Amino acid sequence: MLISPVLAEDWSMFKKDASHSGFTTDAVSPPLTLKWTSNLGSDSDSSPVVVDGVLYIGSNYGVHALDAGSGRELWTYRTNGFVKSVPSVAGGVLYIGADDRRFYAIDAKNGSLIWVYENATDGYLSSAAVVGNRAYVGSKDGTFYALDVQTGEPVWTSLTGRNIESSPAVQEGIVYFGNDNGLITALDAGNGNEKWRYDTGIGMIKSSPLVTNGLVVTGSTDSSIYALAVNNSVLKWEYSTGGNVESSPSVVDSIVYAGSNDGNLYAIDSTTGKLRWKYNAGNFIDSSPAISNDIVYFGSGSNLIYALDANSGRLLWRNSTGQNEKDYITSPAVSGNTLYAVTHSGVVYAYSSSAQVTSTPAATSAVVSPTVKETAAVPVITPSPTVTVTPTATVIPPTGTPKASGFEYTALILLVTVLIRKRLS
Questions:
Q1: CA gap 144, 139 in Å, rounded
Q2: Quick one: CA torsion of 229, 310, 397, 355, rounded to 10 degrees?
Q3: Whole-angstrom Cα distance, residue 165 to residue 167?
Q4: Average pLDDT over residues 276-303
Q5: What confidence score (pLDDT) does residue 375 get?
Q6: What is the pTM of this model?
Q7: pLDDT band at 390 (very low <50, low <70, confident <90, very high)
Q8: How distant, in Å, are the alpha carbons of 94, 122, 183, 212, 332 from that of 86?
Q9: For residues 229 and 209, is the Cβ–Cβ distance under 8 A?
Q10: Which of 52-91 are b and which e, b meaning 16 or more Cβ less than 10 Å from the residue's Cβ?
Q11: What is the mean pLDDT of the chain?
């Protein structure tokens, strides 16, 4: 029997939904406690999704299904190549592409194969968005595919000429994605006709677009975050960071959150493109944020998971996921009262709220917004000394100044000696 949170909202594809909001109304609030861990036995570059109390994840073995309540393995499906993309689950079917040039439709309940599309000339890094009766996905062969979810046959294809690692977002009949040629493209979801394209220049678009409030927002390896008008690709704003932006942006309350390889998590006003705050994690951030209850969850290359106040950037909680090179997480997911994350070494973590959920209060101090192009010093949020660390995970304990050995005993001897001399005199 599966153990699932009551009224848990599904996180059914990369960044939760087809617009890639990365936001859920399910509430998980720090401090968090470790509920369970499970070792896949294989490396993973995939991120977890959770549907109907089951967690699905890809690895260099294939696809795994775990009970979301306990971590118990339910089934596995062996592929012929590394599954680096994120599953998309809809209508009881799991859709995913692998490095073996195949795109799979698998029964989500028992792991049996329904169909496989084998005509791509290279593998898949892009994670599919399933909307209606179509699965939209890009391939390393430079082709973007719209596959019929019943048959696996292409309804239409679009050639871009370069690797598509960016995962598509779909909203109001338009599909948005980027490629390694620096192009952000919008296609008609029904027939594949191009609506527009925007050339960012020399960078590659590995980040996956977010569609929000009439904007398409995505990052580039040229260190910038771009916001384009959905209807005509007009550049509304561009925010420059200090490193590649491979993290895919998330949004809540018109604030966009995205990580950079410069080690910062940025909160940017989606209307103006101005910085609200940034948090320095001290190592690269290619993890895409998950937002729950005004809290932003993400990972860094320091093998840490963070929880920040979405309004102020204040650190609320962090936790270590190991000490080895591959022990940093991909992109987390939230369902019910649980935060799920997987490391590149293949260890799955499930954290739950340890106290009654309360809303995170909004910041009371005024926020100073610098110019969009970061040319001046801006406030950097530093870790709070009152951070809660989950005690069940491996953490480096704080160092302190040790007391001199035997100090108290020596002092007592001296005091007794003085008293004896006084009595004798």
A1: 6
A2: -130
A3: 6
A4: 98
A5: 28
A6: 0.85
A7: low
A8: 10, 17, 22, 21, 11
A9: no
A10: ebbbbbbbbbbbbbbbbbebeebbbbebeebbbbbbbbbe
A11: 87
